[in-house]
From TrEMBL:
Keywords: ATP-binding, Nucleotide-binding. The keyword Nucleotide-binding applies. Residues 5-231 form the ABC transporter domain. One of its GO terms (molecular function) is ATP binding. It comes from Rhizobium subbaraonis. Pfam families: ABC_tran. Signal peptide: none annotated. This is Iron complex transport system ATP-binding protein. SUPFAM superfamilies: P-loop containing nucleoside triphosphate hydrolases. InterPro entries: AAA+_ATPase, ABC_transporter-like_ATP-bd, P-loop_NTPase.
Length: 262
């Protein structure tokens, strides 16, 4: 498969510290992929490598060639804008390459439409720095969507959102993927959100790939014990699919090793 996002023995290193090593996976377009794993396992570094912000070993390709910045939307984990810009102006920056002295009516309509889909069109004239952290996340995600990327990378884009807005974001991402055929990769800590909304997942552990594919095939009680250090039940809901129920933290020294995928 040459279409989609392909990782070929990808590694990232900071000085003598190896952050990622020999990551191999591939994902077809038209999907939402959940990038999951414990804190410090390399999720942000992997997204940074795909976005071209971190040097890496190996090869990362999208649709048969190197990742093109023109087709990319990237939202890092700690995104904040301190400039004195309105919400609408921040969203319009998603099309900054196409903006001239005047903003066309079509672009304005698209920007207001995206803000409306998030339920924050009433904030359009507000200064971005006056918003809450969750509201800023929604604005910055709206900015990336206005760009209409073929590959959208999101690093903890729902971390500051309440439950209703988390669900709304995934509804919007699903509609975007179905409408455009884009590939969305989102780093996320909430395994239940990943189980419900992701078409596939990429599970990292200690800088290596612990598994990739369908959530139900990758995330098992054994994997949760070995990778996350928790005892948990994996239940099946007729409405939402798999549901992770954490029961207890595993005592140190009692976790059996798990073989990482090549």
């Amino acid at each position: 498969m040459s279409e989609g996002l392909i990782f070929d023995r990808v590694g990232v290193q900071f000085g003598s510290r190896i952050v990622l090593s020999d990551v191999e996976a591939q994902f077809a377009p038209g999907q939402i992929i959940g990038l999951v794993g414990p804190n410090g396992c390399g999720k942000s570094s992997l997204l940074g490598a795909v976005a071209g912000l971190l040097s890496h070993r190996g090869e990362i390709t999208f649709n048969g060639r190197g990742v093109d910045a023109q087709n990319l939307g990237y939202m890092p984990q700690h995104s904040q804008i301190r400039a004195s810009l309105s919400v609408l102006e921040v969203v319009l920056l998603g099309r900054h390459e196409q903006l001239g002295w005047r903003v066309s009516a079509d672009v304005l309509e698209a920007a207001y439409g995206i803000l409306g889909s998030f339920g924050i069109e009433d904030l359009a004239s507000r200064p971005i720095h006056a918003l809450s952290g969750g509201q800023q996340q929604l604005v910055l995600l709206a900015q990336r969507l206005l760009r209409a990327p073929r590959l959208l990378l999101l690093d903890e884009a729902t971390s500051a959102l309440d439950l209703a807005h988390q669900l709304r974001v995934f509804e919007i991402l699903r509609a975007y993927v179905e409408r455009t055929g884009a590939l969305v990769m989102i780093a996320i800590h909430d395994l239940n959100l990943a189980a419900r909304h992701a078409d596939g997942i990429m599970l990292l552990r200690n800088g290596g790939l612990a598994g990739s594919g369908r959530f139900d095939d990758v995330v098992t009680p054994q994997v949760l014990r070995s990778v996350y250090g928790v005892e948990a039940e994996v239940l099946t809901s007729c409405r939402t699919g798999s549901v992770i129920v954490p029961l207890a933290r595993v005592r140190e020294g009692s976790v059996a090793p798990i073989r990482l995928s090549p």
